[in-house]
């Protein structure tokens, strides 16, 4: 059985999916790829926007796209260290 | 013959000054290094556990700073007979008490963040409230023994809270490496308070306490250093 993902893993997963899609993805496919409930997704989405890890962009046709900010890219880069640090000190 | 001090720091003043200063520089240097070097990890994650972990060292740095001020003041006051010790001592005690209580409570929160799901903001206010009330008690009574007692009660309360709170993630052992490290950190602070005030603790024993306390800080520092981005990369490459 696969180990349950924690909060940090889910954030990493959401940001990773956006990056894999050339830093531009619509909210619905993002929700599908992340494999979490829509309610949880909304909470994470709100949190990531508040922390300025992601930003919303709207094209000429009014379609909403999500992309990573510099902070989001930085998080992905440092994720392993961060996870290691949190595990090291049981935080 | 160098002046001999018969107050809480029995021994020649110059040696005591050097010991206190060296201890302060090492401990506060380590605390501030840990605090500033983990800033980036906190900024990118906004992780509450990291927030409290960093605060432990920030508050300990302040507590040790005011402890040093008090030590220096008491030493110089006894040697030069300045005569205005009481008011100063009272205010310094207030800061020592506030910052050290905050450090111990941050330690508790760092261990507990996994179990506390919401209302961490409220918890912050409660921590400051507890620290402020206990400090005011110490301030009003001007009593070092009371400070020692308050800190011991906070420490025992913290230990009990850790053991009675249901943990999300069950520890593999009853006492993990971190629990022991955090407990030692707090216990050495309380011993510091005792050795600071008690004139009957021999200087040699005090130096042993200081060295053990430094060893705990250094061990944490090395673990932090190992997990920081640049060092983790080097480790991986090797």
Structural features:
heterodimer; A: 91 residues; mainly alpha; two-stranded antiparallel sheet; 2 strands; 59% helix; globular; B: 238 residues; 9 helices
Written overview of the protein:
The complex is a heterodimer of chains A (91) and B (238). With 91 residues, chain A is mostly helical. Chain A has 4 helices and 2 strands; from the N terminus they run αααββα. The two termini of chain A are 25 Å apart. Chain B is mostly helical. Chain B has one domain (4-237): Rhodopsin 7-helix transmembrane proteins (Rhopdopsin 7-helix transmembrane proteins, Up-down Bundle), CATH 1.20.1070. Chain B has helices spanning 13-37, 39-45, 48-80, 85-112, 120-141, 144-164, 177-197, 203-227, 229-237, and strands spanning 4-5, 11-12. In chain B, helix 3 (48-80) packs antiparallel against helix 4. Chain B starts with a strand and ends with a helix. The model of chain B has no long low-confidence stretch (mean pLDDT 79).
């Amino acid at each position: 059985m696969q180990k349950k993902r924690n909060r940090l893993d889910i954030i990493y997963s959401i940001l990773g999916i956006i990056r894999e899609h050339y830093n531009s993805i619509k909210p619905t496919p993002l929700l599908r790829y992340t494999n979490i409930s829509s309610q949880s997704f909304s909470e994470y989405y709100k949190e990531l926007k508040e922390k300025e890890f992601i930003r919303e962009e709207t094209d000429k046709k009014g379609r909403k796209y999500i992309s990573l900010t510099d902070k989001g890219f930085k998080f992905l880069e440092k994720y392993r260290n961060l996870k290691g640090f949190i595990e090291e000190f049981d935080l | 013959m160098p002046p001999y001090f018969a107050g809480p720091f029995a021994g020649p003043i110059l040696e005591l000054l050097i010991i206190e200063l060296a201890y302060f520089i090492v401990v506060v240097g380590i605390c501030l290094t840990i605090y500033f070097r983990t800033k980036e990890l906190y900024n990118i994650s906004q992780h509450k556990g990291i927030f409290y972990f960093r605060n432990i060292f920030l508050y300990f740095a302040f507590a040790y700073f005011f402890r040093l001020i008090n030590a220096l003041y008491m030493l110089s006051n006894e040697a030069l007979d300045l005569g205005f010790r009481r008011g100063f001592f009272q205010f310094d005690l207030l800061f020592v008490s506030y910052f050290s209580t905050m450090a111990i409570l941050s330690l508790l929160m760092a261990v507990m963040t996994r179990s506390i799901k919401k209302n961490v903001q409220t918890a912050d206010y409660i921590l400051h409230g507890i620290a402020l009330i206990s400090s005011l008690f110490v301030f009003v009574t001007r009593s070092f023994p009371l400070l020692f007692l308050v800190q011991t009660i906070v420490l025992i309360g913290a230990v009990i809270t850790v053991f009675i709170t249901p943990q999300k993630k069950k520890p593999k052992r009853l006492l993990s490496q971190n629990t022991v490290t955090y407990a030692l950190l707090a216990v050495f602070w309380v011993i510091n308070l005792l050795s600071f005030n008690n004139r009957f603790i021999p200087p040699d024993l005090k130096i042993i306490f200081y060295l053990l306390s430094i060893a705990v800080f250094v061990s944490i520092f090395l673990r932090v250093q190992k997990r920081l981005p640049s060092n983790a990369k080097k480790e991986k490459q090797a």
